[in-house]
């Protein structure tokens, strides 16, 4: 999934330049923190209806590309 670059955005004035999802204030780190705490993808999507499953997959692709 190379098109995560269309989904993960980095803006210096937003969340201190952390990678965010589609310009929102939800960071890639936030998503992984929720998942690491035991939330399922379905629960994250339920809590944040503005997110999509594609957004979550983009977080994984971004992290894999960054590693």
Question: What's the topology here?
Answer:
Elements: E1 8-10, E2 19-21, H1 28-36, H2 41-47, H3 53-66
Antiparallel strand pairs: 1-2
Structure description:
- The chain has a single domain (3-66), classed as Arc Repressor Mutant, subunit A (Orthogonal Bundle).
- The protein is built from three helices and two strands; from the N terminus they run ββααα.
- The chain has helices spanning 28-36, 41-47, 53-66, and strands at residues 8-10, 19-21.
- A two-stranded antiparallel sheet has the order 1-2.
- It is globular and about 30 Å long.
- The mean pLDDT is 95.
Features:
two-stranded antiparallel sheet; 67 residues; mainly alpha; Arc Repressor Mutant, subunit A
